[in-house]
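Possible regression after last week's pipeline update?

I re-ran a chain I had predicted before the update to compare outputs. Posting the input and the new output here so someone can diff against the archived version. Not blocking, just want to make sure nothing changed silently.
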Amino acid sequence: MVKAFSDILNLFWSNSDNKSITILKNFGLKLLNWIHEYVPGLFCDFCTANAKSTEIHNPKVMFYGDIKKHEIYFLILLSKLGTDVLYINTMAKDEFEDVDKHSRHSYVYKLPYTQPLEEFPRFKLQQKSNIIKSNTNTVIPPINYTPLETKKAENFAEKIHTAEKVEKTKKSLEELAQLSNSTVMIRTYDKNGKILGSGSGVVISNNGLIVTNYHVIEKGFYFGVIFEGMEENSQYETHTVINRNPDKDLALIKLPIKTNAIAISRGEDIARGQKVVAIGSPLGLMNTFSEGIISGFRKSQKCDFIQTTAPMSPGSSGGALLNMYGELIGVASAGFIDGQNINLAVPSKYVLDMLEEKSTVIGMELMEMYSSFSYNNIRINFDGLFGRSIVGCYNILLYQSRTDRTNLLELVKNRDFSNTLVNYYINIISNLMSKHSIQVYELQLGAGNYIFTYSYRKGKITNKGWEYINL
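New output (post-update):
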């Protein structure tokens, strides 16, 4: 695995026109994410001790349709691990030749004639059987779900970087500019994939937690996240909103990756006249760096604000306002178009308050430990949307991840799969709600336009099953 991963990084580096360590790191992180997501399922039934058995075969992967360069590198990686890989696309340009320039890792077979690709054939699962046959012709019963108590929860708060009360050294502007690696551009999309707008975000934990403005993600169905040096068409995509606070104009979204975080200041030592820097993506200009001072403090009915002269424009919303130690003291929120250098940021104290809320703790625990569901050789990944309704009901929606290509809509038609899936999450959520003394909650599982709904209200259970909903 290590050698194959290293070989692919070297191949990517040798093919790169713009040799950037940041781009290489982002590419490596994407590869590791795909390895974590797909490789265990491919090799779960493969045992080297039985390698000579006629019943054991190398894992098989077929990629059908349009492909991106990063996906080509991943297919080559799978091949190096021993997987037989077939890529089919009758109308594509020679993308493989751009990556595997000397045909050392692949062989192109061209048919005498081509025609446009049709939709990939769909196969129905057995509906009545209580068992599913694997590709090795052995009968495998549905897996048993693991109760919540048997898994050890991680304290996600330990992954949040808060500024410590120790003697600190101020950073140069050049050093502060390097923190652009921990600020991102966020694109908001509707259910049809249309871009509704864009803003900025700040990475605040090493497990993919990002703070931004509520108004940046308010109307979005899913979000695209772009890091420094990343190609725009290679963005990370997620539905996950861990928590939101419209009154403070803050929201927390999460990616299933490891990240470098910016430390959060407790805001106890900020003062008028203090030098600050802002990092954001105004007007779509990725990670623009500017400096200024704190020019005042403003209060509204629901929120305090830091006023700064650091330039901000539309698209800066959700970006970082940093002190000279490189600590987050505010989240860029608003600017006055008719005023010169009059910009507002939400103080970081509200971010720290949000991280301590029960909704955040529950959402992070679910996404860190239970965002994946396994059934025989099938693995489904979920994004999550969490929060409380006006009537005090705690809502949990686990929606199939943007990166998961499994046909979940077809799978839930299988009674065994559907029952195992919903019972797994009903058990998980029931234990988690009991742990946090929540007596009113609603769990939903989403696959396309089909939603499973299960609600609990002080002992009363309502199970609506799977329903079609016009999202």
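Follow-up from reviewer: compared with the archived run. Residues 331 and 346 are 5 Å apart (CA to CA). Marking as no regression found.
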